[in-house]
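$ run holo --ligand "zinc ion" --emit tokens
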Amino acid sequence: MPEQLGIAFGTSVPTTDLTRVRLPRPPSLTTVCGISCGMSARHFFGTLEAERVTMLVDTRQTATYRDARFAYRDDLAYACERHDVGCAHIAELAPTADLRAAYHKVADGKSAGREDRAVAWTAFLHGYARPVVKDRKVLRDGSPLRELLYGSHERIAFLCACQHHEDCHRRVLLGMIAKHVDGVAVAHLSPENVGGIAPQLKSPRRYLLEAIPVANVSASHMPGRRTA
Ligand SMILES: [Zn+2]
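-- output --
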């Protein structure tokens, strides 16, 4: 019902503040899933099949790094084709190069402690949530994401290379979709679903010192850290 969606955006809600948007229940979509490409192709496509995912959205900043293996851009597209799964790369769902650089500048530093890394990780996820929801307006009328959410797929998976969803921007993205689109559930798909090994969290990167309300993501304070 594109007319109704247009009204929701055009008149009742200022387009500069998508954090206040509530979009109606999509006609087909029930679940947005997160998945890592850091597993074997067998486990990856086995998981997609077991979870009845028919569309894969790549949210990586780049898909042409050396150890991408089956998830190297063209190979991934080909493998999806062979497994009858749709495949799209939506660049505006990836973190920016600046954000990644700022995080790694701290986290990869020799003298960085877990507090420094947790602060940098928190800044990274906040920095991601802000442009995705506000500046890039990824749920705007006619955006690639919105077209997909209101298309024919019941279950769509969003891909990144990070093993664990708590170490990845995809958790924020999925939370943001579920928060702003009615009737959509979130599922984090893991290799253990199809007999693989559960991924490990990269502590202390997982410590998120402040909640991200626009994505319903809560803070995860470091043990022993004094909170205000
Ligand atoms: Zn990631």
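-- notes --
Strands lie at 31-36, 55-58, 86-89, 155-160, 185-188.
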